[in-house]
Amino acid sequence: MATAGGGSVADPGSRSLLRLLSFCALLAGLCEGNSVERKIYIPLNKTAPCVRLLNATHQIGCQSSISGDTGVIHVVEKKEDLQWVLTDGPNPPYVVLLEGTLFTRDVMEKLKGRSGRIAGLAVSLAKPSPASGFSPSVQCPNDGFGIYSDSYGSQFAHCKAFQWNKVGDGLAYEDFSFPIFLLEDENETNVIKQLDSRSFFWNVAPGAESAVASFITQLAAAEALQKAPDVATLPRNVMFVFFQGETFDYIGSSRMVYDMEKGSFPVQLENIDSFVELGQVALRNSLELWMHTDPMSQKNETVLNQVEALLSTLEQSSAAVPTVVLRRLNQSQPLPPSSLQRFLRARNVSGVVLADHSDSFHNLYYQSIYDTAKSINVTYPAGQSPEEDLNFVTDTAKALAGVATVLARTLYQLAGGASFRDTIQADPHTVTRLLYGFLVRANNSWFQSILRPDLRSYLGDGPLQHYIAVSSPTNATYVVQYALANLTGKVLDLTREQCQNPSQVPTENKDLYEYTWVQGPLNANETDRLPRCVRSTARLARALSPAFELEQWGSTEYSTWTESRWKDIRARIFLIASKELEFITLIVGFGILVFSLIVTYCINAKADVLFITPREPGSVSY
Fold first, then answer.
1. Alpha carbons 570 and 120: distance in angstroms, whole number
2. Do strands 350-355 and 325-328 pair parallel, antiparallel, or not at all (unpaired)?
3. H or E element: which one contains 12?
4. Residue 62: DSSP 8-state
5. 409 and which of 4, 317, 373, 527 could share a cystine (Cβ 3.0–4.6 Å)?
6. 122 - beta bridge partners?
7. In sequence order, what are the beta bridge partners of 571?
């Protein structure tokens, strides 16, 4: 038996099922939409931008349009490939993916000259680092803000004697009207192809030779000096200072001199007996360390005698350190770029700058993205764990420990010590842990042990960066402060509450000391940390250029560098069709639309013929 009817009615259960299926289809459509977006857009997460910087006389760096810039990606692996983006390519503007070895002033000037055809630039890291060197800084760093000028030591002004940074091409001091990004992740480079040191790029300034090696040596010297049995009874005080912002026309040192002159710093200028500064010290040739002094101030006989005594003390202190050979320079040679220049600009003081170079820098990557651990020969045996690397004493660590020993013994003798000079010894293990933490992996067990619990997030799995920006202090500043505190301070038997509020303890002096509750080392089972209270004299002082406090926006005495404001800087790539394909798609789509309209019209006109009217309900056939 069979039944047939002219129509059918769905029961309520069927309606619920249809609604459910429709809802599921809607969700599936939304999910598919997100998937399509992810397939179209590829965000570049590991990038570092070039940003706009300004001072009283210059505008440098990069900027994008207010709404961003879009262009066709074109890979430039050799100079010949530039012709396409500069003149031949039919679909400008282009976003150039530039091989790292081509990131030079010559190439960038060509791209800058055709800015109408360039929407942006993505630079991949060159591996290995360029053998001939790469420094986007100028050949005469901080020119005009040191001691030498047209009116004082004019024969040394503007690096007339010789250029300190010979490989510097000044690229970081050029102005570009299009955005430039560094691709830090090799995978992202591959995706695109199928697809205060400072550097050209924001917050990418490893500064191994230009900054890190010297302040690590200074930290090791501070620890060694603190261990001298009679250090607390020496007739003179020793103050270790770590300046920030020196790259930008000596911001840190000029601020300290300004505060000293205004009487708002605990030490006055006239109280400075001697000034010993560490310059670049990691790339020594044949163990040599050069002693740089200022010829102009030594025209004063008193200063001349003081400098001579200072150099003699250094030589005596190095006599028993076989890994360091100190060398004197001709008295007619000027000082290299150094913080000492800002102090000499205010007052004649006996001072010396210790450096691994006698004239031009040995550092071929001064203030560049390639001034890394590898550039100062910090390497580790293959197959070691991160903890083993942390404690592995490298040859560079041993060499810097030797320099730190000479410095510590010199400072001990300058402070009036004599009995224990030859027993003072810097610890290579301290140096190697500092090198690893600052240049290889900040998130390690030792750095974790010396920081407050709330600063743990400052330690990433890579090296710390030393780029000086508007946001201050930087992560590296805090780590240096706490390293100094832990290396020179004293562990106290106080509770966390007493450490954070030492005024509750009658024997402690909050005005004289800094008290810090740090995470401490791991226990014997390496499962929990043993927190402790560290008392030290390590403090932070604000490194803000006096020009802004004085509202001297056009100052040539103090730094006026500023950074442009921005909220979000990002880059992504996406696929689009060519103009020809877009035109063909439009024509085909329009044709299909017209054809559909015609077919619909014809079907509607012949509907009475094409479609049979359904039978009335109730008709039954057997």
1. 12
2. unpaired
3. helix 12-40
4. E
5. 317
6. 97, 181
7. 44
CA atoms within 13 A on the CB side of 601: 6
**Cβ atoms of 479 and 242 closer than 8 Å:** no
CB 35 within 8 A of CB 27: no
Distance between CA atoms of 222 and 225, rounded to whole angstroms? Answer: 5
Tokens of 560: 């006026």
Helices then strands, each counted (H, E), the chain: 17, 18
Neighbours of 30 (CB within 10 A): 10
pLDDT (0 to 100) of residue 258: 96
Beta bridge partners of 522: 529
Coil, strand, or helix at residue 145? coil
Task: Say how far apart CA 525 and CA 527 lie, in whole Å.
Answer: 5
pLDDT at 395 (0 to 100): 96
Regions in the chain scoring below 70 on pLDDT: 1-35, 186-195, 470-473, 613-622
CB atoms inside a 10 Å sphere around CB 158 = 13
pLDDT of residue 26: 39
d(CA 203, CA 484) in angstroms, rounded, equals 23
Tell me which residue of 124, 1, 145, 122 sits closest to 71, measured CA to CA: 122
- Residue 17 confidence (pLDDT): 35
What is d(CA 343, CA 253) in angstroms, rounded to the nearest whole number? 8
Q: Do residues 328 and 291 lie in contact, with contact meaning Cβ atoms separated by under 8 Å? A: yes
pLDDT tens digits along 27-37:
444 444 456 77
Q: For 164-175, give the secondary structure using H, E and C.
A: CCCCECCHHHCE
Cβ atoms within 10 A of the Cβ of 615, count?
A: 12
Tokens 């085909």 sit at which residue?
588
The rounded distance, in Å, linking the Cα atoms of 117 and 88 is: 11
3-class secondary structure, 431: helix
Task: Give the gyration radius of the chain's Cα atoms.
Answer: 34
Distance separating alpha carbons of residues 564 and 17, to the nearest angstrom: 59
pLDDT at 37: 72
pLDDT computed for residue 11 by the predictor: 40
Q: How far is CA 306 from the centre of its chain?
A: 38
pLDDT at res. 193: 52
Residues in Cβ contact with 445 at an 8 Å cutoff, skipping those fewer than 6 apart: 387, 390, 521, 522
What is residue 369's predicted lDDT score, i.e. its pLDDT? 93
- The reported pLDDT for the residue numbered 597 is 93
Q: Which residues contact 158 (CB under 8 A, 6 or more apart)?
A: 140, 143, 144, 148
Length, in residues, of the chain: 622
Rounded Cα–Cα distance for residues 472 and 348 (Å): 31
